[in-house]
Automatic annotation (TrEMBL):
Recorded superkingdom: Eukaryota
A Pfam short name: TPR_16
Coiled-coil ranges per UniProt: 3-39
Gene3D superfamilies: Tetratricopeptide repeat domain
Keyword annotations from UniProtKB, A to Z: Coiled coil, Repeat, TPR repeat
SMART domains: TPR (SM00028)
GO CC annotation terms, alphabetical: Ski complex
Gene Ontology annotations of biological process type: RNA catabolic process
This protein's name: TTC37 protein
Length: 669
């Protein structure tokens, strides 16, 4: 076949392809290849025809052979791209990307429009594969090309915005280089915007700041962007809110942060981040109740803020609202989800705080939950503070051996750690080894004097050690006073101060004040409430006694606060108010239906009201529950006599006299 015949055969092949006679085209090409096996055009035409006949492997082989022969010729690369773009082609995306890269190289010095078309296709392909770095780098090449061609500012602005759109999901991948390219795109888009200030520009700025807030290492850039946006849009609270949230999450309370919080509250008094910031400020200034109020209020508006939940738990713990504090820790952990970066640190802090609070609740279930929380702390097994908490949790659970083992290990490895000595003291105290407990608590106080709990336990140690240490002003009393001064919410310190002033100093008035304070701090503390009421009665101050009882009974749920109902019922009985006495004593019995003394008082109240049949039932119930209550048996007999049941009355009087021969009321009856 001569050269002329080869050209004729290739022309026939081209015509056949044009006429969609692909098999015919293949025949002509094969004839050419018999003569010239390295004919570039023949291989390209075979690729085209085979692709149309859906003979993909043959087509791919033909194009690759052509590329091998002429690597810098366009036709084969274009054909291969068209082949890979067909819907029936699977698992070729990597190969297609390589083809597009080569086409970009070949078009670069020639057809700029085709270069842009291929560039768009390559970006789309990378985007589908979530290869965000490649998306960013390729799109930047496109923008550079447009800049070199002198594209208008408006077109470039749209291209930068498109790049932001393409990369908006890339922040999850935590790839720093892609992140930097995304932030650069934002900056270019902001600078190339037409209308400044304007709504589009404002929304773009918001997106930029939101994006920056996801990059922990871009603090300076975030602060600058917020300040720049505030200068452009002084009435918008958004940049200030982001800045405040950044300061809250960073865990630092600088002058800059405080200024930011107050500026935001001036702009919007109800702003969630602003109110949270004010709450944190209160917490740092030891204004715990105000802190709880503000943090709670702020979190109702901005609830996905783990650091704020942590601060709220801390403030609640300070005022001994332990159950609520545990719930706040759980909210912090929930808001953190699966933490990375700085949030990882917040998770450890939240778990440690939760364990600390659960240990203060001091029951076995809470101790079990505390142990579970401590187990989740990363690297917790090497942290002495975490180990000390674990030791306390074991102690609360009654696992003395495990607690002692941790205590001994800590004292050897960290002899200067106050918590190690405190744990040893708690173990001795629980075993009533008061002399050893005293040494341990003194060692703990020497290392960390400002912990109320250490002084409280040293005071308790002296209280139970001996009568001498209990009465010694410099021992128990001094420690309880120190504990109360360091933590004005520690109710038990005020309770024992009340005991000291009542039983040792004989100062009923001061004792009453301490019991009242203890009860105000913990309304479930019946012993303090009862003591405050009894001392008020002894001091002739019925108003105070009643105000305490009224406050408790108003808040009490049915079946609770028996002591308050009983005290007030007896008071009404003594002061000739039998109907009120009946109501209160019934409420007391709902809390404890087996209290024989309460039934006896209820019988008395019914009797005074003139309800004799009901009074009789109450006295009988009292004597059933406690056969030793002679007075109730006598009152039942007297009521039977009043009700005309003489035989029953005589039998009951005789029953009393068998037990107590000289019981005068029965003899009279």
């Amino acid at each position: 076949m001569s050269n002329k015949e080869v050209k004729a055969a290739l022309k026939s092949a081209r015509d056949a392809i044009r006429n969609k006679e692909y098999k015919e085209a293949l025949k002509h090409c094969k004839a050419v290849l018999k003569q010239e096996k390295n004919n570039y055009n023949a291989w390209v035409f075979i690729g085209l025809a085979a692709a149309e006949l859906e003979q993909s492997d043959q087509a791919k082989g033909a194009y690759k052979k052509a590329i091998e022969l002429e690597p810098n010729q366009l036709l084969a690369w274009q054909g291969l791209a068209n082949l890979y773009e067909k819907p029936n082609q699977t698992d070729v995306k990597g190969d297609l990307a390589d083809v597009y890269q080569k086409l970009l190289e070949l078009y670069e010095s020639g057809d700029k429009q085709k270069w842009c078309d291929v560039c768009n296709k390559l970006v789309e392909l990378y985007h589908q594969e979530k290869k965000y770095l490649e998306v960013a780098e390729t799109w930047q090449k496109l923008i550079r090309m447009k800049q070199e061609e002198g594209a208008e500012k408006t077109e470039l602005h749209q291209l930068w915005k498109k790049m932001i759109q393409l990369l908006k999901d890339s922040t999850r991948s935590q790839d720093n280089k892609t992140g930097q390219l995304l932030l650069t795109a934002f900056e270019h888009a902001l600078h190339s915007a037409d209308t400044v200030p304007g709504e589009d520009h404002q929304n773009l700025y918001k997106d930029f700041i939101q994006c920056l807030s996801k990059f922990p290492h871009e603090v300076g850039r975030l602060e600058k962007a917020c300040h720049d946006m505030m200068a452009l849009y002084p009435t918008m609270s958004y940049p200030l809110e982001v800045l405040c949230l950044h300061f809250i999450q960073s865990g630092t309370l600088s002058e800059k942060a405080l200024h930011c919080f107050s500026r935001l509250l001036e702009m919007d008094a109800n702003s969630g981040p602003g109110v949270i910031g004010f709450g944190i400020k209160c917490l740092k200034e030891n204004k715990y109740k105000e802190a709880v109020k503000s943090l709670t209020e702020g979190l109702q508006k901005t609830n996905q803020c783990p650091a704020a939940w942590h601060y709220l738990a801390e403030a609640q713990m300070k005022i001994h609202e332990h159950r609520n504090a545990v719930l706040s820790c759980n909210q912090a952990l929930e808001a953190l989800g699966t933490p990375e970066g700085p949030n990882f640190q917040w998770k450890n802090l939240a778990l440690q705080l939760k364990a600390e609070i659960l240990i203060k609740i001091a029951d076995a279930d809470a101790a079990e939950e505390a142990i579970k929380a401590l187990e989740q702390i990363v690297d917790g097994s090497s942290d002495p503070m975490v180990l000390a908490l674990r030791g306390q949790a074991y102690l609360n659970k009654g696992l003395m051996d495990q607690a002692s083992k941790i205590s001994q290990e800590l004292l050897l490895s960290h002899p200067h750690l106050a918590e190690a000595h405190a744990l040893e003291g708690l173990i001795h105290y629980s075993q009533k080894n008061y002399e050893q407990a005293e040494k341990s608590f003194l060692n703990a106080i020497e290392r960390k004097a400002g912990i109320a709990e250490y002084h409280q336990y040293l005071g308790l140690t002296y209280w139970f050690m001996s009568d001498e240490t209990k009465k010694d002003k410099g021992k128990a009393l001094t420690q309880f006073l120190k504990a109360a001064k360091l933590d004005s919410y520690v109710g038990s310190a005020f309770y024992y101060l009340g005991n000291y002033y009542r039983d040792i100093a004989g100062d009923k008035s001061r004792a009453r004040g301490c019991y009242k304070k203890a009860f105000e701090l913990d309304e479930t503390d019946e012993e303090s409430g009862t003591a405050a009421v009894n001392l008020s009665v002894e001091l002739g101050d019925m108003d105070t006694a009643l105000s305490i009882l009224n406050e408790v009974t108003e808040k009490a749920r049915p079946g609770t606060a028996k002591w308050a109902w009983l005290h007030r019922g007896v008071y009404y009985l003594r002061t000739g108010q039998p109907s009120q006495a009946v109501a209160d004593l019934q409420a007391a019995l709902r809390a404890d239906p087996k209290d024989s003394n309460c039934w006896e008082s209820l019988g008395e109240a019914y009797f005074n009201r003139g309800s004799y049949s009901t009074a009789l039932k109450s006295f009988r119930k009292a004597s059933e529950l406690n056969p030793g209550l002679v007075y109730s048996i006598y009152r039942a007999a007297a009521l039977e006599q009043i009700l005309g049941k003489y035989e029953n009355a005589i039998a009951t009087y005789q029953q009393i006299l068998k037990k107590t021969e000289n019981y005068v009321p029965a003899l009279k009856g």
